[in-house]
Fold each of these.
Amino acid sequence: MFEEEKQKLEKRKNVINQVEIPLDKLQMSVRNGFEKAKQEKTRKRMIAKRSILSIAMVAILFIAFVTSVNVSPAFASKVSAIPGLDRVVALIQNDKGLVAAVEHDIYQPVNVSQTEHGITVTLDGVIVDEKGMVIFYTVESKEKDLSELGYKYWRVKSNKRSPYEYSMEIRNSFYPLATEKGLKAFSSSHRIESRYKSSLPSEGHRLEIGIINGDKIENFKIPFSYEKINNLESKTFTVNKEVEIEGQIIELKFIVVDPTGMKLFLEAKPSNTKKFLYGAFNNIRLVDEKGREWSTHADSYYWEQNKFTVSVPDSFYFYSPKKLTINFGKVAAIDKDEAYLLIDTNLSKFIKQPKDSIFSDLKIENNQVSFVIDVDRNKEFVYFPKITNEREEEYTFKYDDSPYYPSTQYVTSSFTDLPDGKTKFEFQIPPNSKQVRLVLDYYPSWIEDENVKIEIDLQDK
């Protein structure tokens, strides 16, 4: 029976070989912590870092996956039996948690399409649990070059309030559906995380995608429902173990595991001399007693100053490991007394900045501050969420593509990539401010110690 399924997969592989796959995609990501202060280059860099493998190698990975000796009979049977699932294979083949979800009948096909002016969007299917939803979709066109089409918005809406509602609007930038000329089809996925358990109806949802087609916006609204699957309760493992990294104490409080992903809850001691930066724990790896590995998201986030919630998009929900080693790798951190810039706007000079500074060429003209950051933002990133003046009045930096909240005080700002690989940052001086303090939340400062780890016996949990 397994050989028969593999033969069917081989036939599907030949069909896939005839479909061109883009080398990049715009996978919109949920921003739980700094949503109101994001700007287009932040999103562009982090999205690319997180998603390029699953899309750039879709066709190759599909071929490798269906011909691999590691393909389980259960998974091969599912791919053969479920229409449209072959398009999903390459998107999940490196995600052990989602592969297991398919094997355990959690993937739910939708296969609903809408066509507007020669462009077809198909919602292939969803994987849903109490804490997350993964949506798989395909865009194709026989008439259009996908590199000439762009995203305008990406939303999930519901007739009733839902923990999975999500909206990402693109205001002043053009994000192409594909970066390579001549592409006609690609499949993609998008993961939405919920902070709380869903007990709401599973019907009445819709996927909304706005696609820029010349001077028009093609609006796709695809309704979908999903069946609630019982016995998918979150698994919580209480840990309460501390680890020391160059004198800094971090405690792993607990791990929450769901089929669509996991979360690690960490707390840094207030007495630490270093500030852990946004994305501080992007390099955490979880390894079980069999050598199976799960890696953290490319964008960890924190709720409060010393409390971090780190996303792991993969999951060991269906694998039931007995022991787990948490390897921290390098951690983004900076001395607390260096985690900001202080600028005198009257003297046009830096009063305070980190040692080995990457900031230079400070200028102030027409109530506008500019300086150069010596960093290639395609590799590293510096980001300022807010600014305060000498009266402790706080303002949020408003970037071109960040959302606007009426109750927030803003100052306009922008990043510009320079020809020499450096970056120029500009911002408006808040009213009547003689000194301004820029908080550093993203900065290329690392603690590197490959030996830092926590051992957990899950059989005791």
Note: The longest strand covers residues 235-245.
Amino acid sequence: MKPTRIAQLVDVLKKRIPNINACSDAAAHADAVITAISTDSRTVKPADCFFAIEGDNFDGHDFLDRAVEKGARCVITQKRFQSQKAAVLRVDDTIKALGDLARWYRRQLPAKVIAITGSAGKTTTRQIAFGALKECFKCHQSPKSFNNNIGLPLTILAAEPEHEFLIVELGSNAAGEISYLTRIAQPDIALITNIYPAHLAGFGCIENIVREKASISEGLAPEAVLLINGDFEELVAHCRDLGVPYATFGKSPGCDIIGSDFVSRGMSGQISVEGKTIDVPIAGSASLENTLAAWAVCKHAGLSVDDFARAVKTFEAGDMRLEISKVGPLTVIDDCYNANPASMKNAVDCLMQIARVQPGRTVFICGQMAELGKKSRQHHARLGRLIASAGVEVLLAAGPFARTTANAAQEKADADFEFFVFDDTESLCNNLVDIIRRGDIILIKGSRSARLEKATEKLQKLVIL
């Protein structure tokens, strides 16, 4: 973060001078400079400004003293607090104050902002685009999936004046969230990866998802470009009705940026853009689509296709996102960061593609797809039929819809299909030793609430004879 005086911070948030009752020199606090923003007292550094945020599991107000002890020069709080060592600013809503500060700071940055939203592929698209652009430009990106009303402001506030591109994600679980976030980010390049059934508990139907993702256009900077996936007719039609200028990318002949010759080989693949073959060293057919989306971003950012191809060739997948590794005699596909119907299909396809090029029994350790609302049972039954149609040999399902998935798979599968149903991930893990065999190719996937990384950890400890 660019060094900022506390007096300027107060002015930005349109509040009075902080409550510094116990301090003998108010002006000293007003002129003090902060150099970073933190919401985690464990990582506070000297000269930070600490925002006390009340969450589901922790309340930052409980750690105000710790933040000050570690050197925070200013604390933003919703509750009464006094300190002799730091300026204290009390606001009605610390999360909103964080967003207000980020909105102001974004305007101070010379960097072009690239914002990515969509039902799936946001993080991989961002990572590929960042990996390519950083070879030619000074770039900053979201750490992990910082894509909500806390993570996005923190990402923006961590950018430095020398950065030329800032690449962020905008996520949403309910209507109105993208509209709020895009007004903070004010993107110069905005991209919608795709539209799939995800977070239906908050949206209700696919039409509402289209509207929510397209609302990224509401915060566009002047002369910004909106890039949308032209293979999704509902999205194109909605953006056309909005009257917002846009460009399309996709496989369809009418798209402005076209990808062709998609070839997925399980652990890698390739696509062609503008006559150039792009080698993609990551698993899954969706990764090829994410690469095309990343190219659309990079092209509009001024990167050449040759530079893009060279950078993508060395790209590595992120943690728990179709991350393929050898665990002793096992091949493990760790994709347990999150799950929705589209990403489940992509993961199963990846499992079967790998099985075509190496021997081994196909095993799917499957958790639930969360936040699908009233259609949860329907989508889990579809998943079961997909598993059977793909030819998966063994299913280990855990969670509230495990029986639904297993029953649907059993009805459609061949006679030698095996399945095991568990109440929760812990029970599943405790039975792995009796089910897993040497040479198995194992896919692990489910929503974050399933905590399936425990299964990955358990596999690493198994002794397979």
Note: The longest strand covers residues 257-264.
Amino acid sequence: MKPLSLLLAVASALGTAVSAGPAVIECWMVEDAGGGRLAKKPAALLLRQGPGTPPPRPDLEPELYLKVHDPAGTLQAAVRRYPSDAPPPHCELSRFIPLPASARWARGLTPGRSCPRALDGAWLMASVLSPIFSLSCLLRPQSEPQPEPALFTSATAVLTVLTYSPIAQIQLGQDALLDLRFAYMPSISEAAASLAPGPPPFGLEWRRQHLGKGHLLLAATPGLHEQMPAAQDGAVAFAAWDDDDPWGPWTGNGTLWLPAVQPFQEGTYLATVHLPYLQGQVALELSVQKPPKISLTPAPLVWAAPGEAPPELLCLVSRFYPAKGLEVEWELRGGPEGSFQKAEGQSWLSALRHHSDGSVSLSAHLQPIPVTAKHHGARYACRVHHPTLPTLGRSAEVTLEVAGLSGPSLEDSVGLFLSAFLLLGLIKALGWVAASRSTSKDPKEKKAQ
């Protein structure tokens, strides 16, 4: 049993290591180089390490090799969920300057317009993008001296804004839930400057950008009783701190709920969390979709005489979204050339028909070529490809019957039997009625004699 226990322990350790996500996130430090140009330098976020000092990175400047301390654990929790076989996330670092919120509705967060001296010093904003999560993390490098030569820089994650739904695909007419969570842990100097225990006031802002236009969707400052702009499109946000621990760290929720999503609500959603003089923002992409319904007429059979063309086939592709990306193919299955081939004939598409819910419909037409006896039993199929459908698409089909080659089917045989049975019963009934009438007339005739 000991070897088995050891094997299970090793397997468990390997599973934990695989699911723990990357220990280092490679980044680019992006700065303004003047003249409308940007300068980029390699950087890295060290999230976990083994015993001892961090592994050396001679390819990085020490101030851009950041050993991150995450008191709230939000950044670490997000990275642990990252699949080991997924491409590495995209990460950028930039300089950040603490400033009061510029929006009028958020001015209650910062009664004093000057930034406290406790926030002086260098700040960095890390933006990490991936299909799994999207986050922004406000980092404060530590100023403690290190032994020469310095190999890395320690930094604390002060404010982390995170979403686990960076790409949301919502069915047309259904509700959308755009995930947003955030965590805050003030640095030592901030905590010393603030005498009030408990989480600070915060502001939540959701904006939508689409086709070059943007507008405020929802704004909230819980507990400040400020005059807020009216929410748009029925949007509701769960804006609150999750706990009220006196000294932090604190986590909060800013998830947005949109009822019965329509196509006009597609676009980029910007979620911003405002703290006094600090901000964090993430972007989410929302797209609306609806798979098409497909019907083919005439169905289920189409008739034609040898040498004649079958009647026109109509494939109705109804109630789908988006309108782009739709393709219709006509196939002939089981024909004389083999089990599968492209159907010959003249084909065309109708114009789009728009519906009140934002979905669209169109019809595809095919006028097949004249058929021969070899086409008997073949099937015409209308195959539709659309971004909302699987790779092979979706199809509907009808069976071709060539006149003069079809024997009676089982249904026809049953129908003929039932017809004959009813006819025989009818004849017997008429004979019984006639016999009854003749019998009733005989006694009357005898009395008359």
Note: Residues 1-19, 444-449 have pLDDT under 50 and may be disordered.
